[in-house]
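so my prof wants the structure for this chain in the C-alpha cells format not the other one, which i didnt know existed until like an hour ago. anyway here's the sequence
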Amino acid sequence: MNDLSPHSYQKVWKGAMILTIAGIIIKILSAAYRVPFQNIVGDVGFYIYQQVYPFYGVAIILSTYGFPVVISKVIAEHPEKTREHAARKIRWVSFCFLTLLGVSFFLLLYLGAPHLAAFMGDIKLSVLIKIVAFSFLLMPLVSVWRGSFQGLGEMTPTAVSQVSEQLIRVGTILVLSYLLVNTGFSLYEVGAGAIFGSVIGGFAAVLVLLAFYQKKKKHTVVPSNMLPSSKSIVKVLMLQGFTICISSLLLILFQMVDAFTIYAGLLEVGVNEQQAKELKGVYDRGQPLIQLGTVVATAFSLSLVPYIILSKSNEREVKEKISLSIRVSIGVGAGAAVGLAWLIKPVNVMLFSNENGYNVLLVLGLSILFCSMALTAAAILQGLGNPYLPALFVGIGIGLKYLLNVLLISTHSTLGAAVSTLVAFSAVAVMLVLALKKKTGTSIFERMPTVPLLVSIGIMSAVLAVYLLLTDSLVGENRTLATVQSMVGVMIGGITYLLILIKNHFFTTEELMLLPLGKKLVKLLK
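here's what i got, hopefully its the right format
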C-alpha cells in the first residue's frame, strides 16, 4: 500500500474513516438500546432476548466484518482495468456459496430450534430461535453487495446500510416491545417481536444496498483467463470468512456460551425457573456495559492500526506503533474498568433502576481491560497478515469459558459465570499480546510505564472513594439522584485519571498527536 498515488492514498484513508465512524455508531447503538429495552421488559424479558441474541449476533458480524471484508479483498487485488468485470464474477460465485451456507445455517436453526431450546433448558425459546434463523437468509445478499462496493473503493453504501440497519432494528425493537408489553402479550411474545425487529433491520440493509447497486451498473468485457477461478474464490471465503472476523465474534461467542450454560446450570443446582431467569437477566445487564466500555477503549487503540499496516516496510516504526496501541488499550481500558468498578452501584440504579447483581456486574466490568487488549492485538495481527492465530486463541478462550462456567456456576451462581468471563478474556488477551510480541519482536511490556499507570489508578480510586463516601447516604436507590451521582462521578474520575496519566508521561507528546483528540490531550502536558 506504500506505492499508492496521493489521490489513491487519500481515497483509502477517506474510505477507512467512513467505515470507522459507521462502526463506532453501530457499536454504540448495539449496546445502548439494551438499556431502554431492559427497562421495558424487565430482567426476565431481558433474559429471554439475550438467550437468542447471540445467534443474530453471529449473522450480523459475518455480514458486516467477515465475508464483506474477504470479498472486498479478492476484488481489490485485481488491476483497476479488470476490477469491475472481475467483481461481477466474484459477486456471483460468492452469492452462490454464501446462499448455500446461509440456507444451511437457517435450516440448522429452524429445524433444530426445539433441540437448541431444550439444551438451553427453556423450550419456550424455540419460536424465537426459528425467527432469528431468517437472519441467515439475508446474509448472502448483504455480504456480497457490501464486499463488492468496498472492493471497488466505495465505502458509503456499506456505511449507510450498516447505520440504517441498526437504526431501523433498534427503533423496531423498542417500539414493538413497548406496544406488546402494554397490550398484555407474554414476555416470550415480546421477545419474539424484538427478534423480528432485528430481521426487519436486515431487510432495511438489503433495500439500501439495492438502491446503491441500481445506480451503479457498468459492463466491461475482459478475457476469462484474467478472472479469478470459482474454486479460488470459494477457498478464500471458506478459509478467511470466519477467521477474519473472529475478534468481533469474541463477545458474541462468550454470550453464546452463557446462553447454553447459565440458566440450565442454575436449574441443575435447584434454583427455580423464575429465579434462574431473573438471575440470568441481571447478569446480562453486564453485556452493554462491557460493549460500551470496550468501544471507548478501542476507539483510541484501533485508530493506530492503519498506521501500522501502512508502515509494514519500516520495522522500527511498526514496533513503536504496536507498543503504543497495546499501551493505549491498557491505559484507557484500565481506567474504564476500574472507574466502572467504583461507580457500579449508582450506574446500575441509573440504567436498570436497582442495585441487583452489582457484584456480578463489577466483575464483568473488569473484563473491559482484557477485552480491549484482545481486540487491539487481534486487529494488529490480522492487519499484518496473521488471521489464524487470533482465531485459534479465541477458540481456546471459548473452551476455557465453557469449562469454567460448568465448574463455577454450580458453586457461585452467576458470579461464577462473571469470573469465568474475566479469566477467559484475560487468557485470550495474554495469548494474543505474547503472539504479537513473538511475531514482531516488539518489546510491549518492557516499554510499559507501570508506575504512572498504577499511580493514576490509585489516585482516581482515592478520589472516587471519597466522592462516594460523601454522596452515597444522600442517594440510596433514588434513580434520579443515582443518575446525577453517576454522571458527576464519571466526569470526576475520568478527568482525574486522564490528567494524572498524561502528566506522569504515560504517553509522549509525539504519541498523543497520533491519537484522536491528540492536540487537546497534548495541552494537558503543559
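also thought this was worth mentioning. The longest helix spans residues 388-440.
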